[in-house]
Design brief:
212 residues, 8 strands, globular, binds uracil
Length: 212
Amino acid sequence: MSVPAEAPKDCDLCPRLRQFILDQRQKEPDWFNGAVPSFGDEAAKLLVIGLAPGMTGANRTGRPFTGDWAGDLLYATLGKFGFCDGTYDRRPDDGLTLKGAMITNAVRCVPPQNKPVGAEINQCRPFLKARIDALPTAKVLLCLGKISHDSTVRTLGLKLKDHPFGHGTEYQVGNMTLLSSYHCSRYNTNTRRLTEEMFEDIFARARALVDA
Ligand code: URA
């Protein structure tokens, strides 16, 4: 049976993540608390691939990267490089649309401590593959962080040893470029492992590849 590009909201393929979300529903019944669907343009040329929903961000609001620190930087940068219409306001009904871009996550359900285990990353990979396959116009896969990068390399049937992760690494995969960046997490930006300028340089490259 073919796998859809979006996991069902009540996906139960990963028992640990399922239980974590069910517990969270008790604590915060008004939050989204489910597998977060991708967001953006179905004709996207740029697919941004994050790690997994943040607890108080995407897991709360139901839109990837919406409502947390990582999203503030990601949406601001997407806007600077012409991938947004409207203004990002940290809520899914802010009217923002993505232009030529889509955002997804390598793992669709919020993991404890933002750390999915290997089995969960593997279990969710068919959705990532289906997401990529459903975007025939995609020219750039932009992976945020090593987990996203490694899962995408595996999704594409490539070997990790030939495609190691690094900030700014680029690999040609058929018609697409696999471009990777350090994740725009609060930790990475606070420690200045990733600066705004570094992140903008990645998006400038993505823009150039999309427009080429
Ligand atoms: N929010 C997401 O949706 N994904 C991330 O990787 C981080 C925050």
